[in-house]
Amino acid sequence: QVQLQESGPGLVKPSGTLSLTCVVSGDSISNNNWWSWVRQPPGKGLEWIGEIYHGGNTNYNPSLKSRVTLSVDKSKNQFSLKLSSVTAADTAIYYCARHFGYSHDSWGQGTLVTVSS
Amino acid sequence: EIVLTQSPGTLSLSPGEGATLSCRASQSVSSSYLAWYQQKPGQAPRLLISGASSRATGIPDRFSGSGSGTDFTLTISRLEPEDFAVYYCQQYGTSPPRYIFGQGTKLEIK
Questions:
Q1: Cβ contacts (< 8 Å) between B35 and chain A: which residues?
Q2: Each residue of A88-98: pLDDT tens digit?
Q3: Which residues contact A19 (CB under 8 A, 6 or more apart)?
Q4: Buried-exposed string A15-26: b where 16+ CB fall within 10 A, e elsewhere
Q5: Chain A to chain B Cβ contacts (< 8 Å)
Q6: Cβ contact (<8 Å) for B104 and A105?
Q7: CA–CA distance from B62 to each of A103, B19, B57 (Å)?
């Protein structure tokens, strides 16, 4: 049974960089899967941030593309998100998820990141 | 960019009743690319339906998906207390953004 676990600072200062890692267990990140980050501002809907393949190929949401970097560490079976120049609008629960076809079948529990000084 | 509009915004029903949730796309979407999720407070989304009509592993058969083109429906027959949650539809696109979510329908107990 695959499990995903997000980790990283829960508080980031405005203009700083948000950095999160998703550790995968029960599945190899090198299997034929893409892996995504999705965020959800408190009380609001879901927004897809981007996806990464184990080979390093990435696709980003155009609305965030200039500030987002995804990376993968196959040796640690994990992938990571960096979001730069954050503002209060980036305050959200951040989820990592595994792709299943054209959907996401396994999700982390989510981690709340607050942007505040 | 395709926009997914879900209706109604909130649906108030009683346990045992049936629920019909709608997801309308601004352009035609391949059925293969349409999914539905359930999200309960404090929890991550849970995949219910992929490919517009295929139930995910472990999903009860009271959940069913249908539709094509621009109109898709999630139907829940005989609502159970645990079914009251927020439901999102999601579309995969061949150009970024790869995944777009609807704004959600809140299914609440009447």
A1: 102-104
A2: 999 999 999 99
A3: A8, A9, A80, A81, A82, A83
A4: ebebbbbbbbee
A5: 69
A6: no
A7: 20, 10, 13
